[in-house]
Write a structure and sequence with these properties.
The complex is a heterodimer of chains A (371) and B (629). With 371 residues, chain A is an all-alpha fold. Chain A is built from 15 helices and 2 strands. Chain A has a two-stranded antiparallel ribbon with strand order 1-2. The longest helix of chain A has 34 residues. The longest helix of chain B is centred in the C-terminal third of the chain and has 31 residues. The radius of gyration of chain B is 34 Å and the shape is elongated. Chain B has 22 helices and 23 strands. With 629 residues, chain B is of the alpha+beta class. Classes of the chains: A mainly alpha (371), B alpha+beta (629).
């Protein structure tokens, strides 16, 4: 049993640097959430304290995942996938809604979003699939039908919630991994053509507010009061931070609540307003380091499974960073994707910490695994 | 499915090196795009954005929608909207603004106007968030602020629609009131509501809030440092709420209100043909206009602590023992179950004994031998003690439930109470003790655990009057859009059927007619010349009295310990049109106090009908048309 083969060397190879980078982003994030809640005077537990709880819980989760060999975890990938799908279906039946879409399961402190967890589950499931079906050549379209189905099921379930951001994220993760394992050129052309045909059909399935957001992105003048207002206010917040920022707790856009969704989707705007270009740059560099670190781990992994897992996790984090920051800077549409480790959110924090646990797992075992 | 990973067969994957490098490169390009954009916004455009954020020049301003009008069944407007002028102050970083409030205060003083804002709100200001300095001001103040606008940077007049309740107290407990949304409501509402939104908080205003609220609009405006609007950048128009047309008849409502004025209690008038509510009074009442601009704490506490509970609608939330009005139900049960015939006679000697305990009749001298008809007409208690004992509590409860008691009538108002119909099972479950035979005796004259609401009382008599249909009473006839198109129509809804035999109905009809019209009838005070009224009186004890005659007379009752007076009736006796229930709290005997009130309501109804007929005839006659032209 591989479970019991506990190796002391695992401590030696623990990736302290990665942990340090992740925790520093988390810490800045908590300060930032503190600032958003500074001028509100509700009697509840402040969000920054809750976020600290989530980070602590996430770290525990991360360490547990670190200790179980990733090959064992991925051995159960299909089971985990099945459970996650069941949870997503349960969201439909028992879940409750917030902000007009039904994403949540459970209640109180234990409320969580299975859709966030799905992002990680999809990575290990695809890793398992491509490891099972190794190919010396690039994959043909026919061979990609199963992995496509693996993604399509949660994609549709999440789109129906409706949570466009998370659903798109699953698709992007899928596409990234498929490109990574290699795809046949002819198949690619066929896929692109059919996508072009499918887009108008997909459009008809979108909710009004989702269409509105996409239209607004293409033409912000179209709706200066709705979604366009968010982008305008976000850009004013960021721009007015200038080089050095307005200082901690002093962002007028933030404190006066001109910024929407301050603790979740627009956290970066808050940070950039109060800490300026310097602060924003440092944060982006921190993310960049983590991502390059992750790619290095993917490269050095001892087996295909480790490589795909590490790459999938890294791709997932980097896309979220890019899409979220691009969105608040007004160069990408507002689709509701949080900034990793930085936005407030329990389910997201747990799945990100799990993702980091997987990365460290692959990283540490490259020295231990015997040929 | 599970796969073994015991050995490593494959080689260290090196073929991915170019792909990982490619990914890294792509990512670095993406990051540099982000950094360049960040630099563009913060360094190149920074000063511009900073100015924008400092002036906070773009303001998102809500525009209140017009709340739907409320009209009576004939289109008489009961609730309207009117403009309200508020004096607002926007704190900015501009030093001059801070002085504005002081300047305004002096201006007010020079004209000896009252300036009543709460000093403490200025301590807790947030930049650019407007504060209401003075609410609902008169034209003199509006003119004062407008003419001195240049000297008062940061202060301006804001116009918004507020509610105008034209009839004040008359219908207030039914129509309810409005108020600004609370913080908790916003958090619970899933983005449905925003700050400052006005919601129905009670009565019809609350129950139909989703229809009559309308939708807030918004505008995006550019303002200068003083908070003055310079440019309108766009606007979503507010959508007016739907209008509501009630089943209430304003004239009848007014008559009923006047009949109850100065008393604590309620009256309900139902149309027996469809269950629509023609009038519903709860007294004392309150002025709903007080809530329009946020009620002051003092006023609120005064209303809350008033022992006569003016804020509650007693017609649906007051629960009383039904007293002798319940005898209709016990009699129906006894006839239907066959425990008595109309000719069954009982000797009333003034009291009835069960075990060692005597149960008194209201007439201590006794009624002698009485049959069912006389027992109802004279409201003989001993007769019903005897019948009740024969029936048992659960049989009585079965019929009470058929008459719609013990559960909400289902009216379109929030906060309706269900009353209580006791059964053996109920007592065992709720009171954890077995049913006592003596309790059945009390139940059979509507005392003891029995509780009804005035609405249920009216509805029970309404069902009996129309031959057995128990309607769901309703207050709203239809909802129409602001331009007068019917949006949703509410139709009469049958809740149940009494299913009494024609024989039973005939006997009871005769008895209820006798209550009002025969010599010795307890409800004589409700009789109207020319119209046949049928009804039943009720007097329900609030406090158990000593059995001993002398002790009873000596006992002095407090104001809230006196009996409740009840009267329920319908008219005309043949082909009834309306059912009326009157319940007066701590007022005394039903026949003496409640029946005259019912009579005033009944005669107002029939006079109104006569007037309508006359007007219709006049409108149709060719001579009148000529005259009008």
């Amino acid at each position: 049993m591989i479970f019991l083969k506990f190796d002391r060397r695992i401590f030696h190879y623990f990736d302290w640097m990665l942990l340090a980078f992740v925790l520093s982003i988390c810490a800045i994030g908590v300060l930032n959430i503190y600032s958003t809640g500074f001028s509100s005077s509700e009697g509840q537990i402040p969000l920054y304290l809750k976020q600290i709880q989530w980070i602590a819980l996430g770290l525990t989760f991360m360490i547990i995942i670190f200790f179980i060999d990733y090959r064992v975890i991925i051995q159960y990938a299909y089971t985990i996938y099945g459970i996650s799908i069941v949870l997503l279906v349960l969201v439909f039946i028992f879940g409750y809604a917030s902000h007009g879409s039904q994403r949540w399961l459970g209640g109180g402190f234990f409320a969580f979003q299975p859709s966030e967890v799905m992002k990680i589950v999809i990575i290990i499931t695809l890793a398992r699939y491509f490891d099972d079906h190794k190919s010396s050549e690039s994959y043909k379209l026919k061979e990609l039908l199963w992995p496509l189905l693996i993604v399509a099921v949660p994609f549709v379930l999440i789109l129906k919630q409706p949570d466009l951001g998370t659903a798109l994220m699953l698709m992007i993760i899928f596409i990234s991994i498929v490109f990574f394992v290699g795809v046949n050129r002819r198949s690619l052309i066929i896929a692109l053509t059919s996508a072009l045909i499918l887009i108008p059909i997909g459009w008809s399935f979108l909710k009004d507010y989702q269409r509105e957001r996409l239209i607004t992105f293409l033409d912000p003048e179209n709706d200066p009061l709705g979604a366009g207002y968010h982008i305008i206010q976000s850009m004013i917040a960021i721009g007015s931070g200038e080089i050095f920022g307005k200082g901690f707790l002093s962002g007028s856009q933030t404190q006066l609540k001109f910024l929407p969704e301050q603790q979740t989707d627009f956290v970066f705007s808050v940070f950039a307003e109060e800490w300026g270009f310097i602060g924003g740059l440092i944060l982006i560099i921190l993310f960049m380091v983590i991502i390059l670190w992750g790619l290095k781990i993917a490269l050095q992994a001892r087996d295909l499974l480790g490589t795909i897992t590490a790459f999938g996790v890294t791709a997932f984090i980097s896309w979220e960073v890019f899409i979220n920051i691009g969105m608040v800077l007004g160069i990408l549409p507002v689709v509701g994707i949080p900034l990793p480790f930085f936005s407030y959110g329990g389910s997201a924090m747990l799945s990100l910490m799990a993702a980091i646990g997987l990365l460290m797992n692959v990283s540490a075992r490259r020295f231990i695994l015997q040929r | 499915m599970e796969k073994k990973y015991d050995q490593f067969k494959e080689q260290e994957p090196t073929e991915f090196k170019p792909k990982v490098k490619m990914a890294a490169l792509l990512f670095l390009i993406a990051v540099s795009v982000l950094v360049m954009r960040l630099g563009y916004l913060q360094i190149i455009k920074g000063t511009e954005f900073k100015k924008k954020s400092e002036n906070n020049s773009i303001r998102f301003r809500q525009i209140r929608p017009l709340r739907g009008l409320i009209m009576d069944r004939n289109g008489v407007v009961l609730v309207d909207n009117r403009p309200s002028f508020d004096v607002l102050y926007v704190p900015t970083k501009n030093k001059g603004n801070e002085l504005s409030v002081e300047k305004l205060k002096e201006l007010y003083k020079s004209k000896s106007l009252e300036f009543s804002y709460d000093q403490s709100i200025l301590k807790d200001t947030k930049l650019y968030l407007p504060i209401k300095l003075d609410k609902n001001v008169n034209m003199e103040k509006v003119a004062l602020v407008e003419t001195n606008a240049l000297n008062l940077p940061g202060i301006y007049i804001d116009v918004s629609p507020i509610r105008l309740y034209l009839d004040g107290e008359m219908l207030a407990p039914v129509i309810g009131y409005i108020g600004e949304i609370s913080k908790e409501d916003i958090e619970k509402s899933n983005d449905k509501y925003t700050y400052g939104e006005v919601l129905g908080k009670y009565g019809l205003e609350k129950y139909f809030d989703d229809y009559i609220r309308g939708r807030s609009g918004a505008e995006l405006v550019e303002v200068n440092v003083h908070g003055k609007e310079i440019r309108n950048l766009g606007m979503n128009k507010p959508v007016s709420g739907y209008n509501m047309v009630l089943t209430i008849d304003a004239d009848l409502q007014k008559a009923a209100w006047q009949a109850l004025e100065g008393k604590a209690g309620s009256a309900v008038v139902l149309d027996t043909r469809d269950g629509s509510v023609l009038a519903m009074v709860s007294s004392p009442s309150f002025d709903p206009n007080l809530f329009n601009n946020g009620i002051s704490n003092d006023q609120w506490n005064e209303l809350q602590n008033n022992p006569f509970a003016p804020l509650s609608n007693k017609a649906i939330s007051g629960q009383y023992p039904p007293g002798s009005t319940y005898k209709l139900i016990v009699a129906a049960a006894a006839l239907e179950e066959g425990v008595i015939t109309p000719d069954t006679k009982v000797l009333c000697k003034g009291s009835f004994t069960l075990g060692n305990r005597p149960y008194r009749c209201w007439n201590k001298h006794g009624h002698g031998y009485v049959d069912l008809h006389r027992a109802i007409v004279e409201s003989c208690d001993v007769y019903f003690y005897t019948v009740g004992k024969m029936l048992g509590v659960d049989k009585i409860a079965k019929y009470a439930k058929l008459f719609g008691l013990g559960e909400v009538a289902g009216i379109d108002l929030p906060g309706e109470k269900s009353g209580l119909v006791p059964t053996k099972e109920w007592k065992l479950k709720r009171r954890k003790s077995a049913w006592q035979p003596g309790e059945t005796i009390s139940i059979s004259i509507g005392q003891g655990f029995n509780l009804i609401t005035p609405l249920q009382l009216a509805n029970a008599f309404c069902a009996f009057a129309n031959g057995g249909i128990l309607w769901r009473p309703y207050l709203v006839k239809y909802i129409e859009s602001a331009d007068g198109k019917v949006y949703k129509k509410f139709l009469p809804e049958k809740k149940g059927e009494l299913k009494l035999s024609p024989k039973t109905i005939e006997i009871l009809n005769g008895a209820l007619w006798g209550v009002v019209n025969e010599p010795g009838g307890t409800g004589h005070a409700a009789s109207i010349p020319g119209i046949d009224v049928s009804g039943k009186t009720g007097t329900s004890q609030v406090l158990g009295l000593p059995a001993d005659e002398k002790a009873r007379r000596r006992k002095v009752l407090g104001a809230f310990q006196k009996d409740h007076a009840l009267f329920a009736c319908f008219a005309p006796s043949r082909n009834p049109e309306i059912a009326v229930a009157v319940v007066l709290e701590n007022a005394g005997g039903g026949g003496a106090v409640a029946a005259p009130v019912a009579r005033r309501i009944l005669s107002a109804y029939f006079e109104g009908k006569k007037k309508d007929k006359y007007q219709r005839a006049m409108a149709q006659s060719p001579q009148m048309n000529k005259f009008n032209n």
